[in-house]
Please model this.
Amino acid sequence: MATKVELQERVEKLKSALDVPAKLKRIEELSLESQNPSFWQDSTRAGKLMSELSILQEQLEQVGKVEKQIAEGLELSEADKELKKLEVLTFLSGPYDKEPAILSIHAGQGGVEAMDWAQMLERMYMRYCERRGWKVEVVDVVAGEEAGVKSVTLLIGGPYAYGYLKHEAGAHRLVRQSPFNAARLRQTSFALVEALPQLPETEQRDIKEDELEWQFFRASGHGGQNVQKVSTAVRLTHKPTGIVVTAQTERFQEQNRKIALRLLAAKLWVREQERKQKEERAIKGEFKPASWGAQRRSYILHPYKMVKDLLTGVESSDAEGVLDGKLDEFVISSLTSVYKKR
Model:
């Protein structure tokens, strides 16, 4: 276990990396602005600023709490654990790391097996978000014919959601005894995870309307009778790039239109990062597109139980726990690995 002196040194490094004086100044600015009578006239902007204020205040409260624990020499092991969580914030310095995330899961080849695996991953990420206190909204889902899902898209709202989840992108591999055949043969399935940031509305407005092609249809997923009878689902095509996105789980067409624009903006951003990566060979040190060739993690349930991250080497024999959302070890190791390579 780290000594009191070592913990104090780490706290000072953390405060320097987080730039505590700048955060205190920003808290003061936001607090003053929120007292302006016209502050809530733009409810979207006001909500975003209040969320920023809450995040900053919580961060500094956590730093102060850990600092006090260490100074008093009490519960040093607990202070060490909390300090490690705070140190992760120093790794989240990308342009959109603070933003909410868009997570899409696509079943690979393999029929019902792959579709079932995609739904297992959906549940894993939902449980992870639940453990972190993040809000999750399913905005598009294409159900499998027999079981599982062909694809599903989640909007994940929470501080630094994109920063934590961006390295989950890539192919996820499952090895298990198949529950879909009588012989229970060993089966390998794949699913692709895409992790995108939810971009600020100001950047979504940069998309030109004449470059968009809108189609409306009746939703095939959740939503009840209203969704089934009325063409509320949206399919949006960006004509210059050919990118297609869909949104169909909201009850009203206008809501699905807004979600589709949000999804498109995120995909265009990733496309731009890939373009820069080809030109510069690296973007922010470690950007990797979510492609089938970029295998992220293996989940082995038979003949033994093991989850292994193929990029960091981190392993866990608690496969059931990982699939139940216990992803912190893998998420943090990915962030740490990338940060150290910079």
